[in-house]
Amino acid sequence: NAGVTQTPKFQVLKTGQSMTLQCAQDMNHNSMYWYRQDPGMGLRLIYYSASEGTTDKGEVPNGYNVSRLNKREFSLRLESAAPSQTSVYFCASSLSGSVSATNEKLFFGSGTQLSVL
Amino acid sequence: QKEVEQNSGPLSVPEGAIASLNCTYSDRVSQSFFWYRQYSGKSPELIMSIYSNGDKEDGRFTAQLNKASQYVSLLIRDSQPSDSATYLCAVNVDSNYQLIWGAGTKLIIKP
Q: Chain A contacts of B43, Cβ < 8 Å?
């Protein structure tokens, strides 16, 4: 049981280049999320998908787009990378998505270290 | 701006002692509170969740919630070197799908 799988693990881009981060989960979870983690700051939500076919902006969506390809897969695209997007990106999933639900838990992928030069 | 505040540490605790981690939050209507542990270079993993005022115990871990004072804490009893990690506090905001995260407290357990 792989859980949440993210690719790639590391990526270096030049300013203006584009790329897509891939994420897949095999736990039949309904909700999926993309976070970024910067030193000295908490995890910040970029986009989330409460269920297949829906996506919504999180706290820091500017410069990113997402696609919920099917129930398993949720990708994050940087159309024109900027140095401010240098960060560690985490994909996560949860069964129902409602953080108010008792025992709701986020399962995280292993992360992508992205550097934009 | 809804915020979650944590002391960044590092908090150094001798092996076998109690480690106490604290978190304060600004949103009075928050209902769900979580503690995640993150080892260096790894992804976060859930340690505890708490929804009601008072204490919740799970093995060596106890979460404490005080909504009136807007703080949540995590106690780790009989601390082990393997508990050395960064502990992230997360609190829900008005959306059911969004959490606000603290920057984390780095805990070091000294043998």
A: 90, 108-111
